[in-house]
C-alpha cells in the first residue's frame, strides 16, 4: 500500500486525514490530533498533501514541507465542488485529496513567518482604525443629541474636544462630560497605538528591498507596499499582472453565454484590505493636478473626460496593481521620467 496523495481537513483540535493510492482508491482514513498529524506525516513516504487555505494551514504546511512532503494549499471555494453528497469531515478531506490532484487547480503559496507577522500587524492596525472610527461616530452621536454639531473630518473634532469638555456653556450634564472624557481618552490611546504601528510598518518598508521598489510606484506608500509583500510575497503565484488584479477583484465580473460577452461591475473578490489600499492610492494620484511626472498621466486625464470618476479610480487601481506585480515578479525598479515634449525639429530629425 503506497500512499500517493493525502487530503487533510483542518480543525481546532482534531484533523481528519484521507489518503489515496496511485489508482485513486481510499487506503487511509484517520482522525488525528494536531501533534499526531506531524508524527504521522514523518512516518509516511514523501507524497502530495493538500489542505484548505485557512487559519493554521501555513504553519502546518511549512512543518510538513520540512519533512519532505509536497504541500499545496487550496482556496476553500475551489474544494466545495468536489464534496460528494452530504458534508462531513472525512468527505471534506476526500474532496481536498481529489482537488489537489487537478492540474488546473489554483493554489495558495505557503507564507513565511515574516509574511505572517507582517500580515498580523496589518490586521491589528485595521482593527484599531475601525475602533477609532467607531469612537468618533459615538462621540458625534452623543453631541448631536445635545444639538452640538461639527463639520466632517476627525481632525477638527479632535482639535475641539478639549474645549468641549471645558466649556460650561454647553450645558452638558456631569455624567455626559464623564462619558465624553472617557471616550476622548480612549480615542487618544487608540490613536497612539495606530501611530506606533505606522512607524513600525514604515521601518519595515525601508529595510525591505521589495517594499522599497514598490514605494516607487505612484500611489503606493509604506502601508500598501508592506501589505502587498505580506499577501503575495514575490508574486510568483500569478502568471501576469492581470491575474493579480483579478485576484484583487479589480476586474469586471463576467456573465457570458451563447457567445455573447456580458461584463458587469468589478468582482470584489480576493483580499478586500489590499483592494481598498489600491483604491485609496488611485484616488490620491487622481487628485494631482500636475501629472507630468506620472508615465500614464495623459491616460488618466483622457479617462476622466469620458467616464465617471469612480470608474476612473478603479481603472487606475487596476493599472497600479499590474505595475506592482511587475515590480515584484521581475525584481525591477519602476521609473516614471517626466514626459518629453516633442518639437517640430525633433520630428524632422526622427524622420
Q: What would a concise description of this structure say?
A:
This protein is an alpha/beta fold.
Could you please describe the fold and organization of this structure?
The protein is α/β, with parallel strands linked by helices and 351 residues long. It has helices at residues 34-42, 57-65, 76-79, 89-99, 113-145, 154-166, 174-207, 209-214, 222-232, 241-247, 272-286, 297-304, 309-330, 344-350; strands at residues 5-9, 14-20, 26-33, 48-52, 70-74, 252-254, 263-266. A 5-stranded mixed sheet has the order 3-2-1-4-5. Strands 6-7 form a two-stranded antiparallel sheet. The chain is globular, with a radius of gyration of 26 Å.
Task: Set down the secondary structure blueprint.
Elements: E1 5-9, E2 14-20, E3 26-33, H1 34-42, E4 48-52, H2 57-65, E5 70-74, H3 76-79, H4 89-99, H5 113-145, H6 154-166, H7 174-207, H8 209-214, H9 222-232, H10 241-247, E6 252-254, E7 263-266, H11 272-286, H12 297-304, H13 309-330, H14 344-350
Parallel strand pairs: 1-4, 4-5
Antiparallel strand pairs: 1-2, 2-3, 6-7
Shape descriptor:
globular
Helix content: 40-55%
The fraction of residues assigned to DSSP E strands is 5-15%
- Show unreliable segments: 338-351
What is the average of the pLDDT values?
A: 88
The SSE order reads EEEHEHEHHHHHHHHEEHHHH
Strand order of the largest sheet: 3-2-1-4-5
Task: Supply the number of structural domains.
Answer: 3
Sheet having the most strands: 5 strands, mixed
- The span between the termini is 74 Å
Helical stretch tally: 14
